[in-house]
Amino acid sequence: MNQEELFATVSKPSRYLGGEVNSIKKDFAACPVHIALAFPDTYEVGMSHLGLQILYAILNRYPDIAAERCYAPWPDMEKALRTARLPLTTLESRRPLSAFDLIGFSLQYELSYTNVLNMLDLGGIPLRCADRTQDDPLIIAGGPCTFNPAPMAPFIDAFVIGEGEEVISEIAAALREAKARGYDRERKLEQLAAIPGIYVPALFSGSRVRKRIVSDLDSWPVPSNPIVPLMKTIHDRITLEIARGCTRGCRFCQAGMVWRPVRERNLSTLEHSAEEQLCSTGYDELSLLSLSSGDYSRIEDLLIRLMNRYYSRRIALSLPSLRSETLTRTLIENIRKVRKTSFTLAPEAGTQRLRNVINKGNTEEDLLATTAQVFAAGWKAVKLYFMIGLPSEQQEDLDGIIELGHRVLKQARNRGQVTLSLSTFVPKPHTPFQWHRQIGMDEIAEKQLYLRNSIRNRNISVKVHDRRMSLLEGLFSRGDQSLGHIIEKVFRLGGRFDGWSDQLRFDLWEQALEDLNLSADAYLRERTFEEDLPWDVVDCGVSRDYLHREFQNSLSGQLTGDCRRGACLQCGVCDFKQIRIEKAQDEEEKPEQILPGHPPEKPEADFQVSRLRMIFRKGGTARLLSHLEITEALIRAIKKTGESFVFTEGFHPHPKISFAFATAVGLESEGEYADIQLKNLSAGPAVLAGAINAGLPAGLEVTKMEKIFPGHPSLSDIIRGFVYEVTVPENLQSAMEWPRMEERAAEFLRASSFSVVRETKDKTVLREIRSLVEELELSPESGKLRFHLLFRKEGSVKPSEILTEVLNLNKDFVPLMRIRKVKTLFSS
C-alpha cells in the first residue's frame, strides 16, 4: 500500500495531502540542504501557527535549501503507517524525516512532548541524542517551551532560544558549510553551539544562553503569500502580527517577560502586508495579532485604515487579545461593522486585591464599562477568562468571579450570555511567580466544583480547563532532565496528544511516575530564592533581581507601571542601542473614518449581477478533499482573482455559490458543476476560469465556465444522474470474484426492488435504490466496473453502496479503488 492509498483509509485525509496554494515544492535532488519543519500537533493546529509559516518562507528564499513541513499524525494515521510499515514523511516531497539534514520542531505547548517522540520514531530516527549516528538528522527545537529546555534535553540536539527570523538563516549557513566540508555530527553541533541564542545540551559549558531578539520587525515582514490550508484550521484567517512583546508586567505571564521589549510594526508596513496576504489567499478575515492588540500605539488609526479599505469587500477584522481598559468606542464600532467576531476579555481574578497582586491593573469599572458598550453594539455573548490557584487567593476571590459574572450579565440587561472560562495558574519559568507552588489536583477540583455549583443563572455558564492537563503543564514547565525518562516511558506506553482531552491517557503518566519513583509534587512545590532552577541555563533578558523585586511587590499588592508609558523599570532586557522599545512611527496624516458608524442595510445595492456556471475537475489527491473543503478552495480562488461575490442577506451573509451534488470523499470527477453569482464582472468567462485555476490547490481545475441568465433552470432541476467508472487496482485483482459479482449484478438488474440499510446519527433507515440504478456493467478483462446512477430530489444511491451492498465487495477494498464520475446525465 502506498501513501495515497493510505490517506483514503483515515479520517480527515486533507491533513496529509500537501499541494496547497502557496506551498513550495522544490527539486529535492537539486537542493544540497534539506530541512523539515515539524509541528507536534495536528495539521489544523500547526497551520494556524504564524511562526512556522515565517520560517518556511525565509528558508525557501534560498535556492539551495528545500524546507518542507510535517505535522503529527492522528492516531488512526499512526496506526495505518505502522501497519503498512511506512515512515512519517513531509507534505511536499513525501520523503521520510530520516532523509533530511535537520528537523526543526516548534514547541508551543508542553503537552505535545510525546508527539515529538512519536514523530521521531515514525520518521525512523532514534529518540535520544546519545543514540543517533552520523547518518541521522540533527534535531533542533524552538518556541516558548524552550525557555525551560530541560525535560526535552535528552531528545533535542540543539535548542533555539528566542525569536527565529535571524537565527534560522545562521543555522542554514552553518548546515550548508557542514555539508560542503563533510563535517561529522560533533563538529556540526559545535557549529550550532557557536551561534548566539543556541543551547546544545551535550556541549553546555556553564554560560547562560541569551535569547535572540529581532530588533526591527519591519525588516522581517510576515510572509506575503502564506500557505492556504486544505481544511478548516483552528484560526482560519490571515494573521497580521502588529507588534511583539508586552511590558504590562502581569506577574503570572511568561510571554510578557520572555518576549520583551515591545516592538511595533509601522502602519504602512501593516497595510501593505494585509493587502498582499488577502490578495494571495482569498481569505475574508484578518486577525490583528499581538500579546495585547489594544496596546498598539496606532490601533485606532490602523483599524480605520483597514476598514476604509476592506469594508466593501466584507473582510472581517478580529483582535484576539484585548484588555478591557484599551477598548474604545471606535475600536468596538470598527470590529462589528462587517461581522461580529468573538468577544473575549481576561479579568484573570475576581477581586481588585488579587488583580493588584498579579499586576493586572485593570479595574472592575473598566470591565463593566467595556462590556456595556459591547452588548450595546449588538454582541449577545461575552467570554471572561479567569485563573484559579493564583498566589494569595482567598475564598472572597472565588466569590468575586461569580459576582463579576453577574454584574457583566446585568450590562446586557440579563438577556446576554456570559461564559466564565477557568484555567489553573501554572507558575511559569522566568516570571515573578516562578518561585510559587502550583495547587494540586484535589484543590483544583474543589475550586472548580465550588464555582460550578455557585452559578444558578442559565445565562451564565462555567467552562473549566482539565485539571489533569494543568498538572502535566506544571510538571513540564518546571521540571528537569529526569522528566525525559517519564516522557519516553509514556510514549512507549502509547501516550499521544496529551493536550487533547479526548486523547489524554492520564493513567499512563501516573503509572510512569510511579514506576520511576518520581513525584509530581516535587516539581510543583514552592522554590526558594537561593536554589538553582532547571531553566537557569536560559537567559531571557529579564534579570533575576527584577523578577525577585516583582515577587516582593506582589506580596503587598503594589502595582508596577508599564515602561512604554513611563520610566524604565530596569528589567534588564534593553541595551538601548539595538534592543529597545520600538513604537510605530507617526505618519503625516491621521486617517478619517469614511464609513458610517453602522453598516447600511444594503451596503452595495447598485451593482450588476453576473450568473456563471462552472465545470471543474477533481482528481489526484484532491479527490480526498471533502465537499466543504472544495467549496472553500473555490471561493478563495475566486476571491483571489479580484472579482466580488454577490452575498446572501441575513445575519451571516455567504457568497452565492450552489453545487449540483456533493461528491463523496475519495471519488474523482471529470465534471463537477457549480453556479455562482458575481457582481460587476470585469473578465470574460474563459479568462476568469484561467485566473481561478491559478489559485486552486493541486488536483482541482476549472475546465469550463459560461454565463447563464435569470430564469435558467437550476442544476438540481436539469441533472438526472451520473455515470461512474471503477478501476480495480492490480493488487486487488486476485481477490475479486468476478463470476459471482456478475451473477449478483444480473440478479440486481432483474429485481424490481432492492433496499439498503443506512445509518444516520440518530436512527437506522431502509432505502430503496433499484429504481436509481439505470445501468450496471462489469468488465473483468479490463478490471473495471461502470454504472449509471440516477439523482432525484427524494434520494440517491452512493457508488460505494453498489460495490458493497449490491456486489457484496469487502468494505476495506473500496477506499483502495479508483472511483471516477466520468459523465453527468441531463434531462432531455
Model regions low in confidence, pLDDT < 50 over at least 5 residues = 596-603
What quaternary form is this? single chain
Q: What's the total number of strands?
A: 29
Structural class: alpha/beta
CATH superfamily (homologous) name of the domain at 3-206:
Cobalamin-binding domain
- What name does the CATH topology of the domain at 3-206 carry? Rossmann fold
Highest CATH level, the class of the domain at 3-206? Alpha Beta
The dominant shape is: globular
What portion of residues is helical?
25-40%
Number of helices: 26
Mean pLDDT comes to 93
Strand content: 15-25%
The largest β sheet comes out as:
10 strands, mixed
Q: C-alpha Rg, in Å?
A: 29 Å
Span of the ends, CA to CA: 43 Å
The CATH architecture name of the domain at 3-206 reads 3-Layer(aba) Sandwich
GO molecular function, one term: iron-sulfur cluster binding
Protein name: Radical SAM-linked protein/radical SAM family uncharacterized protein
Pfam families: DUF2344, Radical_SAM, Radical_SAM_N2
Organism: Syntrophus gentianae
